Amino acid sequence: MITQLDLTHFKCFEQVKLPVGNLTLLSGTNASGKTSVLHALVLLHQTMREHEWSPRLMLNGDSVEMGTAADVLDQVYGHRTFGMAIHDGDAESYSWEFEGSHEDMSLKVLKTWGKSDPNGEWSSEEPKQLRYLLPFEAHGSALVDRLLRLTYLTAERLGPREYYAHQDMRRTPVVGSNGEFAASLLQSGRDLRVVPELVIPEVPPTRFRQVEGRMARFFPGCALEIQPVPKLNIVTLGIRVSNDSKFHRPVHTGFGLTQLFPIIVAALSARKGDILLIENPEVHLHPAGQVAAGMFLAEVAAAGIQVITETHSDHVLNGVRRAMKSGLLTPDQLAIHFFQSRNLDGPQVQSPQIDQAGNLDNWPDGFFDQLDKDMNYFAGWG
After folding, report:
1. Distance, C-alpha 115 to centroid of its chain
2. Cβ–Cβ < 8 Å for 207, 190
3. 3-class secondary structure, 363
4. For the segment 96-133, what is each residue's pLDDT rounded down to a tens digit?
5. Cα 288 to chain center, whole Å?
6. What angle do CA 162, 167, 170 make, to 5 degrees?
7. What are the angstrom distances between the C-alpha of 18 and each of 37, 107, 246?
8. Cβ count near 310 (within 10 Å)
9. What pLDDT digit, counting tens, does each position of 318-355 carry?
């Protein structure tokens, strides 16, 4: 499990060392670096998966389009390089230094260093041949395996559609960055078992029925129907929102269901040790649904699937706090980080600590405090 991510001269960061938990919440103001943290991991995943033998970090691919080196290098200090390091507890650590001219759409691996058992410690300057961005000394890395299986879901998830692409699971083993393969993944793996800790007891333990059962917890009466279209690589998704109604096309059931659907499919398709990166799980959900989403992500993390999520919702935070108070997570399993522009006074990242009762030791200015500020304004106190 990733325990820390270090970034140097990457996008808006001069330097940051970010602790990572079983569940990590990234919050803060717009354009303050939350998504950049996710993008750093996605760039590793994208290069490893799509360009196994590449000696360069690929900035554009199926998961994310980052543009050129000018878009990912720290513009304030004008560097041509940026650094990244991933720590997996005491088991594994890897670091890279990437270099490129501003117009380059990939960056050269300038240096790489690693520590893993049983391979010990190694380092390489300007390596000529790499596999998964690492020298052969790192062959068999468990961390690399998890990065290869990483799932990234953007905030711009696919809305209701008449039909969805259907692909072989060996080609698209995840839901896709926009959730475009969620229906396909669910259809192909409908009879597979989910992680036991995530099984709803009263529902058959297969992926399809468990996804349907989870959807029904958010939207009572919800049921799903997926149908392959003969001679075409597409499937249709039917959604029923009441036991008394028929299955409808997604366009007739609202955005909330289709925005949550790929999150649930991704979580229930994951294996223990997998990494889920999710932007704004609260999109198009009622406040009660946002709280439930926070509790669900906490449950997924407690089952051994690492979750890093960016959120602007205090309801998602409160769902996680409720999960903490219920004993689902322990304080050492949760990391919370609040980001603000580095142009402001104070640290760019603050990390409030939480206790087992769900209480936070610190509420930085701007950290989910807008309701209090507005109430003070209306009361004439601010």
Report:
1. 25
2. yes
3. coil
4. 999 999 999 999 999 999 987 666 788 888 888 899 99
5. 22
6. 155
7. 9, 23, 48
8. 23
9. 999 999 999 999 999 999 999 998 888 889 999 999 99
Tokens at 305, concatenated: 């699937």
Amino acid at 167: Q
Q: Quote the radius of gyration of the chain (alpha carbons, Å).
A: 21
**Distance in angstroms (rounded) separating the CA atoms of residues 153 and 262:** 8
Tokens encoding 191: 């009879």
The pair of structure tokens assigned to 181 is 């393969």
Single out the residue of 122, 154, 116 nearest to residue 276, CA to CA.
154
Among 60, 7, 62, 9, CA closest to 37? 7
DSSP 8-state assignment for residue 69: H
Angle (CA) 19 144 320, round 5°:
35
Q: Are 152 and 177 in contact (CB under 8 A)?
A: yes
Q: Which amino acid is at 25?
A: L
CA distance 134 to 152: 22
- Structural contact between residues 129 and 55, judged by C-beta atoms closer than 8 angstroms: yes
The encoded tokens of residue 337 equal 């980080």
Q: What single letter denotes the amino acid at residue 374? A: D
Q: Which residues pair with 78 in a beta bridge?
A: none
